[in-house]
UniProtKB/TrEMBL annotation:
Sequence ranges assigned to domain GST N-terminal in this UniProt record: 18-105
Stated name of the protein: Glutathione S-transferase N-terminal domain-containing protein
CDD domains for this protein: GST_C_Ure2p_like (cd03178), GST_N_Ure2p_like (cd03048)
Native organism: Ancylobacter radicis
Domain annotation GST C-terminal: ranges: 108-234
Length: 234
């Protein structure tokens, strides 16, 4: 049996199955990237709900795993060389798990780096901009009388979703015929934009063709449906 006692996070969120990969997360667009991939791969894992509404990412135990204080994070007792590996940043986790399982990341060098390119595009653009738009449209920022911040992020979000629209023209998935971690990186964010954030009109989502079809294909996958609910909200 694996010994996780060296990791403070395992004292606050004990592992029932310490031999399995441990996921510390919450069902946000960033969090569900990892639960979707884990469900798709079939890799055994154990999910722990980190209640971001109660600032649990800022506890000493969580910060010992991720000093940046954000979900998701993982602890793999069977990391490289058979040694435990702690990892944060959803993009890095996606790449690590895809390489670990040999799934959802092309083996061809050119296709592999192109897939990673689209993951980085989501990490650097789609996620941050959609998140800011959500803040200024739905959350505390919505109370600001000055709508220039909201409009700035709405304009950039509209531009980004059209980058995705163009990419998907003639393709079922971001990389073409193959569903990859690039799709998993983006699905939850687009779903949130038009659903939870209620910002479809702000980005003229109704004018798009390829993104809605891609989103419907993604949401129809059973592993995606399961992953969107993991870990359960408190």
């Amino acid at each position: 049996m694996s010994d996780l006692s060296a990791f403070p996070i395992a004292t606050r969120w004990p592992a029932t199955h310490p031999d399995r990969l441990q996921l510390y997360s919450f069902p946000t667009p960033n969090g569900v990237k990892i639960s979707i991939l884990l469900e798709e791969t079939g890799l055994p894992y154990e999910a722990h709900t980190i209640n971001i509404g109660k600032d649990e990412t800022w506890t000493p135990e969580f910060l010992a795993l991720n000093p940046n204080g954000k979900i998701p994070a993982i602890l793999d007792p069977n990391g490289p060389g058979g040694k435990p590996l702690a990892l944060f940043e959803s993009g890095a986790i996606l790449i690590y798990l895809a390489e670990k399982t040999g799934q959802f990341l092309p083996s061809d060098p050119a296709a592999r780096i192109e897939t990673i390119q689209w993951v980085m595009w989501q990490m650097a653009g789609l996620g941050p901009m959609f998140g800011q738009l959500g803040f200024f449209h739905k959350f505390a920022g919505a109370a600001y009388e000055d709508k220039r911040p909201r409009d700035r992020y709405a304009k950039e979000s509209a531009r980004l979703i059209r980058v995705l629209e163009d990419r998907l023209n003639g393709r079922d998935w971001i990389m073409g015929a193959d569903y990859t971690i690039a799709d998993m990186a983006c699905l939850g964010w687009v779903r949130n934009l038009i659903g939870f954030y209620g910002a479809a009109d702000l980005v003229a989502y109704q004018e798009l063709t390829h993104v809605p079809a891609w989103l419907a294909r993604g949401l129809a996958r059973p592993a995606v449906q399961r992953g969107l609910e993991i870990p359960p909200r408190p």
